[in-house]
Specification:
single chain, about 260 residues, alpha/beta, Rossmann fold, six-stranded mixed beta sheet
Length: about 260
């Protein structure tokens, strides 16, 4: 039986008395695209940070491609820092604020983590970076710094940087939130293109058209918990949970045609 790209069970993360993530279990098959949707403050970004162990969960387990990440079994021992650092590149993440290094060029941003984390030679890292910049159609921007790039171009550099680590799973945290309206369609088209290649993706989004037409499954969070999951059209149009129904009724009332 093929191992899923991600298997998270009973993840819980608290800040003080507030459970930002509350007993969340989520499995994502290889090649599956999952849209993670819900109101602001419901725990979506916190869940992504749990999955990458940027915020280690207080409870629960994570496995990437069948290999434990962080803790070996519920209540088991924490893995060593070395093991966690070895596993972390298996999950690529593109943050809302992108976190590009401002003093490095586009190609430098894509090369650096390969050299530092994966131990690739400069030639290996450059070859991989050049291939990804070409794939994302920004080769001509390779030697420009982030401040010289548009929002959509910076987004592509951040995606190239994450892909360069050859992750088993890509996480996107509101990839269109910081973009002008005219650039949103460009980035969504890029994500659709990546999905068509069989990339495994978990995308936090408010773009209902993307969730409906690109995602294989829609997962709805509220209050730190997953309260609905299934085929996007079923959840968007027919889910009866009152919190889900109220959210999508509001969203659909103001949407433009897909």
């Amino acid at each position: 039986m093929t191992q899923p790209a991600l298997a998270a069970k009973d993840l819980s993360l608290a800040f003080g008395d507030h459970w930002a993530v509350d007993r969340v279990s989520l499995t994502i098959a290889r090649g599956e695209v999952v849209a993670l949707v819900g109101p602001s403050g419901c725990g979506k970004s916190s869940l992504l940070r749990c999955l990458t162990r940027l915020e280690p969960p207080q409870r629960g387990t994570i496995a990437i491609d069948g290999e434990p990440f962080g803790r070996v079994g519920e209540g088991g021992a924490l893995q060593s820092r070395r093991t966690i650092d070895r596993m972390r590149p298996k999950i690529g993440m593109v943050f809302q604020d992108l976190n590009l290094w401002p003093h490095l060029s586009a190609i430098g941003n894509v090369m650096r983590p390969q050299r530092v984390v994966l131990g690739r030679t400069e030639e290996e890292a450059r070859t991989r970076a050049e291939a990804l910049l070409a794939r994302l159609r920004i080769s001509e921007l390779a030697h420009k710094r982030p401040a010289q790039l548009s929002g959509g171009q910076r987004q592509r550099v951040a995606i190239a940087r994450a892909l360069a680590m050859d992750p088993a799973l890509m996480l996107f945290d509101e990839p269109t939130s910081a973009l002008d309206a005219e650039l949103i369609g460009e980035v969504l088209a890029l994500l659709k293109e990546l999905a068509s290649t069989g990339m495994t993706m978990l995308v936090v989004t408010h773009e209902i058209g993307f969730a409906r037409h690109v995602a294989d499954r829609l997962v709805f969070m509220d209050g730190g918990r997953i309260i609905a999951a299934g085929p996007p059209s079923d959840i968007i149009e027919r889910e009866n949970h009152p919190r889900v129904r109220a959210f999508f009724n509001t969203m659909l009332a103001f949407r433009t045609p897909d």
